[in-house]
Amino acid sequence: MTPSPRRHRLTAAILVIAAALSCHAAEPTATDGPRSDSYVQHAHDIAVQQPGPHEGLGTTTAYPFFEAAQGFDIVFRQRALHRGATIGTHRNDKDEIYYVLSGRGELLLDGKRSQVGAGDAILTRNGSTHGLKQLGDEDLVIIVVYPKRKDPALTRP
């Protein structure tokens, strides 16, 4: 059976994201603190059940990849919105990208509703308002990427 063009696009997108984040990866060492090395992180080791973000509804599973990486200025997170879960409508204070890995959802972006599914990428800009709702029986699984906030206490004028 030949893979579908959608499957090829999804695989290519995942490979591009992975390549952009790490050229060299080594097995992680046992540590609870900050890390400055290159490493592999397994989703099953970091999965956290949470309510829908931004006062959203339902239950989600968050995968906060590379949270302990020092000097890494990107947040890279996978989130599974389970049946009926939402990311509450909120105004962005930064640019943000959502990439839909699987499932279906309804996006509210600056007052306009649209359907999203596997292979769709969503750019929300600073000042934009958006929310997302899972639809159907399958989890809506997304990758979320945005710049990490710098601690003002650590920044010199």
Automatic annotation (TrEMBL):
> What Pfam families does its record include?
Cupin_2
Q: Which UniProt keywords apply?
A: Metal-binding, Signal
Please name the PROSITE patterns in this protein's record.
PROKAR_LIPOPROTEIN
Question: Which residue numbers delimit the Cupin type-2 domain?
Answer: 82-146
InterPro entries per the UniProt record, alphabetical? Cupin_2, GPI/OXD, RmlC-like_jellyroll, RmlC_Cupin_sf
SUPFAM superfamilies xref list: RmlC-like cupins
Which positions carry the signal peptide feature in this UniProt record?
1-25
Q: Does the keyword Methyltransferase apply?
A: no
Q: What is the name attached to this protein's record?
A: Cupin domain-containing protein
